Known about the structure:
Blueprint lengths: L4 E9 L8 E5 L3 H11 L15 E8 L2 E2 L2 E12 L5 E17 L7 E6 L6 H21 L2 H8 L4 H5 L10 H9 L3 H53 L8 H10 L4 H16 L5 H15 L12 H11 L4 H23 L11 E5 L6 H12 L3 E5 L7 H4 L12 H9 L5 E5 L12 H9 L7 E2 L6 E2 L5 E6 L7 H5 L1 E5 L5 H19 L7 E3 L1 H11 L6 H19 L7 E3 L4 H5 L13 H4 L5 E8 L2 E11 L9 E4 L4 H17 L15 E4 L13 H13 L7 E3 L2 E2 L5 E2 L4 H10 L4 E5 L11 H4 L3 E5 L2 H8 L3 H6 L1
Parallel strand pairs: 1-3, 8-13, 8-14, 9-10, 10-13, 15-16, 19-20, 21-24, 24-25
Antiparallel strand pairs: 1-7, 2-6, 3-4, 3-5, 5-6, 6-7, 11-12, 17-18, 18-20, 22-23
Helix pairs in contact: 2-3, 2-6, 7-8, 8-9, 10-11, 10-12, 17-18, 17-19, 22-23, 23-26
Subunit structure: Homohexamer. Organized in a ring with a central cavity.
Protein name: Lon protease
Keywords: ATP-binding, Cytoplasm, Hydrolase, Nucleotide-binding, Protease, Serine protease, Stress response
Amino acid sequence: MTEYRLLPLLPLDDDVVLPGMIVPLDLSATEVRAAVESAQAKAPALPGIRSTNNAEVLLVPRVSGEYAELGTIATIERVGRMPGGKAAALVRGQRRARVGETGQGPGTARWVRAEEIAEVTDQRSTALAAEYKSAVIAVLQQRGGWQMIDAVQQLESPSEIADLAGNAPYLTVEQKLELLRLTDVSARLERALEWSREHQAEQEVTDTINKDVAEGVEKQQKEFLLRRQLEAIRKELGELDGGDDSGDYRARVEAADLPDHVRKAALSEVDKLERTSDQSPEGGWIRTWLDTVLDLPWHTRTTDVHDIAGARAVLDADHAGLDDVKERIIEYLAVRSRRAESEKAAERGGRRGGGTVLALVGPPGVGKTSLGESIAKAMGREFVRVALGGVRDEAEIRGHRRTYVGAMPGRIVRAVKEAGSMNPVVLLDEVDKVGADYRGDPTAALLEVLDPEQNHTFRDHYLEVELDLSDVVFLATANALETIPGPLLDRMELVTLDGYTEHEKVIIGRDHLLPRELERAGLGPNDVSLTDAALSRIAAEYTREAGVRNANRTIAKVLRKVTTRVALGEATLPITVDAPDLADYLGRPRHLPESSLPESTQRTATAGVATGLAVTGAGGDVLYVEASLADSESGASGLTLTGQLGDVMKESAQIALSYLRSHGAELELPVGDLAQRGIHVHVPAGAVPKDGPSAGITMTTALASLLSGRVVRADVAMTGEVSLTGRVLPIGGVKQKLLAAHRAGLRTVIIPARNEPDLDDVPAEILSELDVHPVTEVREVLDLALTPARIAQAA
């Protein structure tokens, strides 16, 4: 027959008491007080139930409002008050028991039948108990619980040793409840040992971290104290009063060969550094400034080479063609050399350098940047390129104020620092693409840089000391002059690079582009060769440009195709590429001459179409102007202009129409019904904006062709502005426009008579293939451009 104990149930909210544990219970809770008082009353004897006079309760965990199926029988050791004055009962856990049915007992507590549970032990229990006992002792030693070690060492029962885990503060209520439910002592010891080891591992990591933190704090405190002591010692000695590296900076400044005004400013900053705390961010700013000043080559200069003949040889070796440009550069170098010799002979000091700032202006790919490198090589100076394209912040030129985070010198100072000398050649690339916004206008900052009368006292916002730039050779490059501000343009002398002729492109491709691309493709000098005919066809039919950039890409494409075929075993080296072979490597030509196209004559075969010439950012180009007359019954009137024309071209169209209306009778043109019929003038390629004062006679010729029915000759191109009186006014870019007409296969070109002196700039081989007609009146233009009336009627 199973024996039960009828005990008052004492619920434990979110807590577990294992056998062997001694815990205080707060009697302020109603259920706890009722259970203790009921236990203290004498329990009545019930049939079949052994009664006892011991005051015992059944401690049952209650988790989330639900009672556990097991509890702990505990004896009430003492009832009294805690140091705080609250009533409490001290209970000791004795044995595990299963919670049974509800019974009757004295008091208001809930009485239940408690069935004691027999625990299971085996041989492993003793070994596990010894191991866990050692683990508990190690934790107690780590925590300093020396008074509990003796009590733990006296325990021999594996069950009692296992229940020691109930006192572990690192176990959760769920873990303690799991230990309460484990009646197998070995399993209970294994679980307790596992959790103990995990806690020891976590504790070791925590102790290591705490130790490192404590050591770091101790080191910082020690370092702080040592620094304060060092500071006090330095003050007493009268040498220094702070900063561990200020003495090094002072020695560096005193040893450096700095100008007097720079040395004075640097020593002032060293004084500030010595008075600045190590924790202050200002110390880092001062050190960066001092490093920048000390790194600048204040007295370092390269020796100029005054061999003008050698400079001409360098330019000729690096660049084909551009004779007028190279002549102007040689003049520039000769004047600088002569001035330097004169100053040396007179033993004059003060500012050096000065002179003109050259601005190399031309389409992309004509060699502006490489010309700057050649000038530096010819002078024996260092070369630095400063890219200005897209720069919109004035601080990029003048530098940032040191009050800003991340402040640094401007690009000019960084260029001098990079060159390592105070007289480099600095190329300001793409100066026409400098923008302006709320951060300032960089072009305005360039005024002082490029002005020979001012740049000897250039002051960067970051350095805040004067920097002599008078001996720096500044060169500028640009694609278009229109976007360069007038004051900046006034400080530069323009050297125009209009482009290359087809013959010059062949020489450049053979002597410069092909050897460089052979090396890039991993080919030897004799592995692949392109004939002059092939290079000429590349320049004429596969690339239509003022420069040679696309020609360079095309040559590289041919070499890639050759390399691929050799790798696939389809060809063997060496290989010679001739003009007919290009279609096999590059496909069909992209730019056939207008005269060779079947539709070229058809384009101007219709009355009202004329061929003009214009200058774009990529050099000269051919521009077609088309005109049409609305039907008299449509009701349309007035002048319609399309093709994204600018204001100047719109005015040219208005002037052309007004001239024809007022002089129609003299020109034998039917202009009487123009007032009732609408006129539409269109310039194709409507997605490209167009403007400029050179399309007047082209528009006049197109309208005259439309009114007379006489078509414009297919081989005639023209450029020039027109006035209301019929005079042909001069324009610019004659050389670029004639080169464009030659590239397009047009052989007759009409230009204003006042532009005839500009023909001296056109290469002789181009002029020999063009029939250029200088004109002064519109009547001359119409006589040259329009086909005779009888031919038009026959057509």
